[in-house]
Each structure stands twice: as structure tokens, then as C-alpha cells.
## 1
Amino acid sequence: MYKVLKNSWALFLGMSFIMMAYGFQGSLLGVRAVQEEFSLTATGFLMSGYFIGYFIGAATIPNVISKVGHVRVFAAFASLASLIILIHSILIHPFIWFILRLLTGVSMVCMYTVAESWLNDRSSNKNRGSVLSIYMVILYGSIGIGMFLLNFSTPKNFQPFILVSVITSAALIPILLTKKKPPTFKKITAMSLNELYKSSPFGIVSSFFYGTIQSALFTLLAVYATSMNFTIFEISIVTFLLAISGAIAQFPVGKISDFYDRRKVIIASTFGAAIFAVFTIFVSGQMYLPDGLATSKTWFYIFFIFFSFCSLPMFSLILAHTNDYITKDKFVAAGAGLQFVFGLGAISGPFLCSIFMDIVGSNGFFIFLFFFHFLIGIFGIYRMRIRPTIENPDSQFVAMPQTITPAGIELNPTTEPIEEPIKEEN
């Protein structure tokens, strides 16, 4: 562990700054959009821009990195991300923010790709699991810390936007000063969607639905909390709980899935998330009753923690389930394919969720989450009836963030290269 930190501290420190700014920015823009009285549909539309940019960047950035190099690309797109957040505070309009969010998505996937390919290059088969675990903790921990920065100043002021820019720019310092030689970048080709679907229909369908859930959850949670009259501090608590409880849940849920039928664990997790979404709706309705009848927001926090605990490990579960049905040499390609499908779902998530909220009110947010979690569970039950479970000794659960790129998926120790047999000379 010490050796991993010693060799990669600059990357970890740089990414911690990036994720701190990312967590802060997401909540900041959500609250500011409500304060500017953007319609819910407009807010969902502009938030979807991030995932469109992420999707575009994931397809184009590998070629840019191959031509220009890791350090220059990281520096260029980190600078772009730092500049973009400042423009948010100057040009306040939903369509302009949509374009800016799109550019932020391109910038973020670029920085993820650079960092994860660099970490993968510095990892050996013996320490890949440790590197990925540290990376996971840093990502979720930094996002959680960043969400508390919402208390720095009111989102109506320009100071929070400047702070996001400063934190993003600070990420450049350790990355650019590292003495380590940049890795040789290799582009990873995903499996075709047809081949991936034939291998695991449940994997590809649930990944698409889960993309809609996660994108809406992370981009519109602050919007929901603001519309429910939460204070800035309470909003930061809710968003912090989302990041931290999701990170903590990865390992116990993953271990259970290695001992029991993985599809049953996915179905139990998704139905659990759906149930706690309903409980959260019920409790949120009780919070604003007259004095003496109202319930404490503590119950809202508790049920939301349980929701996050059930929901956030699901991408890793879906990836491990898909790997159960393919050979080890296709693990990375399948992961890249699932990430592609996840991205397709993520593009529509915020916009669709905002429509739910527009029709039924703020709690349309949790109705949306309930609906898509329920769909995953129903399809999972259907698939279990027509296809038997397969035990694949090469496949195991490995906790991964939803933002992982194909380069990051290679950090999974189960994807280590299969050595070719040595031919004996006659």
C-alpha cells in the first residue's frame, strides 16, 4: 500500500482536487438554477449536457491522447474545466449552461482517462486491487468533501464559482510536476452491442436503466433538496450522504454477490432502492406538517442513506454479472461496452427526471428513481426464469465508481493479461 501511494501520490492528489471541484460544482449549479428560477425541464436539459459531453469525449479523447500525450491533454482540459465554471457565473441562461455542461463532460472524461490509464500503467498484477481501492476512496471521499463547500458562500454570489476554478487549477500542480514518465496509451475497443447483448441481456438492459438513474440522482439531488426548502447546509449533508454511503456500501454488497447468485443480489438491491425511495417520499411529506405532527428530517436522511446503500453498488454488480457469462480475455471490452450503454442511459436521465418533477412536483424525483429501479428488478426476475445461473471462476465483484473509463476497468485485478504459453523449441 505504501509503495502504491509513493509511486502515484501526485495522480491521487490531482484527482482528489478534480473530484472535490466536481462534487462542489454539481450541487452549486443545481441550487443556482433553482434560485434563478429556471424551469425544472430547462434544468434537467442543461444537466443532461454533461453526459452528452462525457459520451462524446469518451469516443474522441483516446485519439487526442495518442497524438498529443497525457500531460498536455490533462493540462489543456483541466484548464478548460477551470475556465468553464467561471463563465457559468457570467452568462446565466439555460442553453448557455447546457453548452458549458457539455464542455465540462468532455473535459472530465478526458481527465478520468488520463489519470486511470496512468494508474493502470503504474500498477502490477499484484497491486491492481489496492490501486483501484485507493482510487475509489479518493473519488467518493473528495466528492463528499466538495459538496460541503456549498456552505462557502451563497450560490447567488460569484465567489463559489471562483473557488471551483481555483480547486480545478490546483489539480494541475502535482500532475505537471511529477517526474514519472507518461504511459504509452492504448485504445480499448468495446464489444459490439449485439455481442454484448447476446452474452448478457440483463447486463446491458440494466446498465442502460441504471445510467438514467445515476445521472438524475447526482445532478438533480441538489435541485430536489432546494425545491423542498432545505437549507444550504442541509443540502450539503444530503449530497455528502449520497457519496459516502455509496462508497461504504460497495464492499459488503460485493462480497455477498460473490457468495450468492449475483442476479438475486442485483434484484434485491434494486428493489431495496425502490422501496426506500417510496419511504423517502412518505417521510418528506411528513416534514412540513404543522408543529406537533411533523417528523424530523433525520428520518429522511436515514432512508436516503439506505437508498444510496442499495443503489450505488449496482454498476459494479452489473459489471461482475456480465463477466459471469464471458471469458476473461473479454472483461475489459465488455466493461467498455457497458460503460457505453450506461452513458446512453445517462444522457436522458436528468431530462426525463425533470419531466417527472414537473408533472407531480418535487417528489417526482424519487418517483422517477423508484420507477427505473423497479424496471431493473422486473427484467431481472424475467431473465432468471429463462436463463440458468453460470459460475465463472474468473469473475468476481470489484468495486468501481460509475465514472470509470475503460482504462480504469483495466485496474480490476481479474482483467490481468493472459500470458501466452511458451513454445518449446525442438
## 2
Amino acid sequence: MNTAIIDPLVDRRWDVFVEKHPMSWICHLSGWKKVLEKSFNHMRGHYLVLLSNGGIKAALPLFEVRSRITGNRLVSIPFATLFDPLVSGRDEMDELLESAVSLSRRLKTSYIEIRAFSSSSVVRDERFGVQRFYKHHYLDLDTDLEGVRKTFDRTCVRQRISRGQKSGLRVRAGEQESDLLLFYSLYVKNRKRLGLPPQPYLFFRMLREVFLPTKNIEILLAEFGGMAIAGVILFKFRNRVSIEFSVHDHAYRNMSAVPFLFWEAIKSSYREGYEILDFGRTSPANKGLMDFKRRWGTKVTDIPHFYCPPSASHGRGNRESSILTRAVKVICNKAPEFILPGFGRLCYRHLG
């Protein structure tokens, strides 16, 4: 096999390969490259592939992320909660990792970060150290809906779903950009309350522009009295659905709009034939979020991250308690709400 770098936005073989690979996810599609490069000018995608007889046999997308504050690195793939190099065995993985190391040297990046999930067992290159800090929660939708519902915590989940249903909440799909703006307004409020910088609106607009027409994303809004008080953004691809973003109006928190929306998402995913519903990536340091996801009867597993050199992984699990992170949290808590989108754009020029 020959190693090459291709541009998936012009090479028609790419999405065909992704659609067929058993470990592929929405972030492997060529549209993800378009979303990232249009939203963030400090990122550039390099798609390493192994070619045989003119076809793609294996692949490792890498994004060059450049920042004077957080360093220059290669990441596979930015802002993807789940990701796998698209390989079928260790030999393919070894060859792609060798090409990744060569690319890193050529681009003069300080380290490589590769996120792996199902493929983590075939990452054996001694130049890469592993960190198993983040957790992944998911529901198997392989039983009837009532069986799924019975796995939920009675008080913290089932009763709150019932409360939401009795509160007169209405769920609808958000198909217009005005709906996305409603969602983003709630998102900024939530990020302020949590002390986190918001992702730029352009990122969400590009997600909608690229993936809504292909039905790979869905926006659900919960309304009360004609006003949106909560929302979720779902990613959909192959046999999985992932609740990637969840927001709510804190003033209406007693109406249980978020459990109501989660249950609506679970029901629709089951009816559409999806087999797994993901609750996204979670830091174990966030005990409240860990408990929230556990109460839905989810299974939990590690999300390994591999670093070359291994020293690049040091302290990754403690970033949330760093001085810089604490300073950002104070600014987000204290700053006026209208300042946050601009502050978020500034912060995310260095993230990935």
C-alpha cells in the first residue's frame, strides 16, 4: 500500500470509504473538515490514507492546530467527542502512525494527539503514550422502549420526565437559522453560568449548513407558552445518535425540560432504528455531570487519548484546575453576557 495525503473535499473516494467503514462517525465525513476550516482559521486538515489499487484502505485524519499559547500540534480530530483512526488492524495503524510522526516533523509541531475508541487496542507504537482520563456514557437501544425506561433512576429521571410531560412542554424540530439563534442564546447563558467560554456561533452555523440537509444533525427545542426554554443538538450517523449539546433556561429548571427532551430524543432514535445513544465525553472531575449521565442507566467506558511524545500527556487530566482555566472561569462568570461570544472566539482561537 502507498501512503498519501488527500483532500476529502475534492476526492470523491473519501466519503464513500467513510460510509462503509465500521468505525466511522460523523466527524470523519468531509463536511467536518469544511466546518472546522471555515470556523477556525488556526486549523488545517491533513488526511493521511493508505491506498491500494486506487482505493482507500485505511485513513488517519489529522488537523494542524497552531497557537502561540497552547502550542502547535497535530490533533485527530478537534472537537470530536468520539473518534477512531479508520483501520482494520495493527499493520495499517503502524503505517499511519509512522506517517503521522513524519508529518509532525515536517510541520514542526510539538506533539501529536490521537483520540481512539474502538481502535485503541491496535495502537501499540511505543512512541505514543496513552491517557485514559475522559469517560464515555452510552445507552444500548437493543430492547423495547419500556425496558430502556426502566433502567432510568426513578426519582432523578423518570419522575422528572413525567413532570416535564405534565408541564405542557412542546417539542419541535429547529429547522430555521432563527431556531439555531434561539438555541445559541440559551447556550451562551448556560456557558456563563458554568464559567465556560462559548463556542463561536459560526461553528454552530456551519454545522447546521453542512449537516442539516443530509439529516446528520437535528436540533430539538422544548417550548413553553411559545417560548424556547431548552434545546439539544443531536449528531446522527450509521447506527449511533449522540446528544452533543444540551441547553436550558435556568429560570424554568423546575419544569424538567432537559429530561423531557432527552427522553424525546431517545424515543425518536429508537423509532428511527438507531442502536446506540451517546451522552458524550465527560471529565470524571465533573461529578455532577457524571452522576446525571449515570442515572440514565448508561454504560460507561474510557476514551483513550494517545500522545507523541508521551510527555505531552502529562497534566492533561488536571487542566480544569490550572490557573489559566480558573481565570477564564472567573471572566465568564463575571463578564456581561453580550461580551461572552467575543471572548469565546478569542479563547477558541487556541483550542482544538
## 3
Amino acid sequence: MKKGLHPEYVEATASCACGETFKTRSTKPILKTEICSKCHPFFTGQQKMIDTEGRVERFIRRYGLEDRYKAPGKKAKPAAE
């Protein structure tokens, strides 16, 4: 293998938006996440609203195509100026 090609694999501290932190290994020393196993509904068993948006929705919003792809019966959101 070539020398100097691969990044260093170091111990990293991962922190979640809920405040939970844990140690892991990564090529970056600090990792930040929005959700972890301590606050994810699958692991906690509690119903919780998780604000996520898919790639398609982001694309539609980014290029102003809400009118073309809006769901029947819903009004499109006004574009941010």
C-alpha cells in the first residue's frame, strides 16, 4: 500500500443533539449526530416526531417545483424570499 494515502483512524467522540456522548473510532476526532440509540423511537419504544426530509422533497423545494408535485388537496408553501 502507498504511504500517506489513507487518513488516520483515531478515537473519536460522538455527540448527539439529545446530549448523549460516546467514544468510537473514526477518521475525524469529533462526530455530531441528530439522533442516537438513546433517543431514537425504535430503541426507546416511545412515539416521537422526527423531523426528516427526503432527497426528493429537498430537490422539489430547492428548484421551486412545489406546484408541480404538490399532493392533491394540499396547498403549496410560499417560496422563501
## 4
Amino acid sequence: MAPYDAMIYGKLAGYAIYLAIGIGFGMALEMSGFGDSRRLAAQFYLTDMRVLKVMFTAIIVAMLLIFVFWSFGWLNFDNVWVNHTIIWPQIVGGLLLGVGFIIGGFCPGTSLVAASTLKIDGIFFVLGVLFGVYLLGETLSIPAMNMFYNAGDYGRLTLPTLFGLGAGPVVVLVIFMALFMFYGAGICEKYFGEKIPWKDISLNPLKHIHPAFAGVLILLALVILVKGEPSLQDRWNMLPAAERQKIENRDVYIHPAELLAVMNNFQLKARILDLRGQSDFNTFNILSSVNEPAETINRHDLIDSLRKEAPNTVIVLVSNDEKAATETYRLLKVNGVQNLYMLEGGINNWIGVFGADKTVAVKKDAVVPGSDSMAYTFTRAYGSTLPLSNPIGDHGEQPDIKYVKKVKLQLKVAKSGGCG
């Protein structure tokens, strides 16, 4: 299942693959004329729009291939690295890059292409880029600069997430936006570049956009729209078998005593998400748990915050039994949340293990198996005020209960990529 790490073939083969891709990318830029600063600067004078045409073509082709493969289950988009949106430094950086592009005629990637062909302006531009990178690294030790560098971090933000739409509608909109831009670019080149009078310029889109090219783009976009995104089960099946087997082997269901130990271990941070309805949560909940009903948990802000938790954070899902917790585990896991566990047997098992005072809670005569309903009747809503919410001794000692430890923290490793 793509994406693949070239290093699975060994370091030498992996580096050779990366080198071949880099050479191919550089050749494509050079053949497109991106090694000539005059052609690149002409973009801003609307006389030569090849930068927009080539780069935007690369973007939409990559987008179409990614989401076609995603729709048919050949690629797991959840594992594709998306650079974080850190809005304020990116706005300022974009402005600086744009000004530098106009003045110098290069962006960082095209300057390397020019330098590789020994163009003097390209070499000096690369030296300037390297000095700028060094200067940024040195200034990040200044608290104010470091704060600004991370200001407005929205994490992995995509257009479907931003607009609350599926990938299909967004892809279709982006394709039509691209075709409109290509159309406008063709007209600009005629008017500003070739100096053709406005009245003599054809407004027929087919004169500025190759019909076969446009047809293929629209066809693929419609395939994505009709096919749709993989279901939760499809995305779950895309995960490595070892990840899926953790549920089957019950490796991620932790005993109530282990959750209690995690809660009271000051080297760890327990983030407990109670997936039950507000009524059950108010009746009784575990100390420091947060009510996040299962039906509303698929929120970008929540999932992103879970992905960004510190490496020593243990995220535990809690429901009355295990049904809602298991379904939510699958959802969060396919969205890249790590160090994720479920409370074995849910709240019902927590109460059964640590024992409820019969003056406040009485076990019901019968509970339908798998209904994920509370197995105890409480005399009133206690929330987390009962000792049962954090049943440790007066001196912080843990109950003497034997259990198999299952919590193993996973380190978050990000593979990032840069721009051309």
C-alpha cells in the first residue's frame, strides 16, 4: 500500500531512487526554461506565463493521481505528509519569497537548476538562500522570533477539511479553477507578450487550452467525485496488519488498574476521552476525563490536537462497555493518532473492579450485551466527586490488583518534504 519508503530496498537503493527523482525533477525544470531568470521574472509582467502553467499542471496532476489512488484504495492519503499550515510566518515568508522572486528571478528550487548549469546569477541566488537559512536558524533562539515562527499553527490542514467538503467536490473545483487560470494566462500572453490588440484576441477557450488536456483533467476529477473517499473500514484495512491485530489480540485494551496507574504517574500525561452521552457522563466519570461524545468526535480541531500531543501522553477512550470505544479507536487510528488505548470493559468494568458503594450505585439486574449502556444505577449525578473516580489510598498507594501492562509509548516520526 502506497506511499512507500524507498529505504525498504536498502540505503544504497533508497538514495539512488531519491537521486533519480531529483535529477528527473531538475531536468523537467530546465527543459521548461526554469533555469533562465528572465523567463521566470516575465511571469510577473504577464508576458510569459510558463511558471503558472508548468507548476500548476504539476500540482493538479499530482492531486488527481493521489486522490484517484486514494479513492480506489491503492494509496493511504493519511500517510502522505502534508506540510503544516502555520499561517502567519507563511504569509510573511510568501511575501519575502515573492519579492525575492521578482528581484532575483528565481525561487529556491529553480535557483538550484540555474546553479547546476553554472549560471552566475543562479549560483549567487543559492548562496543567498543558504545564508538566509543560516540566519533563520540563528535567530530562532530569540523567544519572540521562535514564537512568531510557530504562530497560527493549524497542523495538517487541507481544503476538504477547511471547507467541510469531501475530496471529490474540492478536486472538481480546483480543476475548473486551474482551467480558468490557464485560459487567463493564454490571453495575458497574447496581449502583454505578443502585443496583439485586445480586439484581435480570440476568447474561445479551445484556442488557449488543449481540449484533450482539459478533457482528461475533468474526467479524472469526475471519477474521484463519483467514486468518493474510502469508507472508514476501507481506511482501516489500509493500515498495516500489525496495527489491525492490536484490536484482535486486545493489545490496546488496558485494565482499569493500569489506567489508574497512568493517571497517577507524574511522568505521563493521561488524556481520557469519555465517549458517552452527557447524561451518563454527568452521572459518573473518571477523574480528569473529558466528555467527547462518540458521534461528534470526528472534528478536525480535536483530531489535530490529539495528533500533536506530547510523546509522553497516553490517550484513553472510555465508553460504558467497549463498542463505542472500539469504533472511535478505528476512526482516530486511521487519522494518525498515536499512543491510543481503550479502557477494558469500559466504565462498567471500572466500577466492577474498584467496587461501587451500594449506597450510591446498584448494579442492574440485566444489561443487553453489546448495548454499551451503563450497568449501574446511581442515586444521583455524582460526576467525578466520588472516591471511585480516582480510587487511590490516602497516601497515594495503588490498589493491589494484578494486570498485564500494555501501555507502550510510540514516538512520533514525521517525514517532511520541501517545495520546488
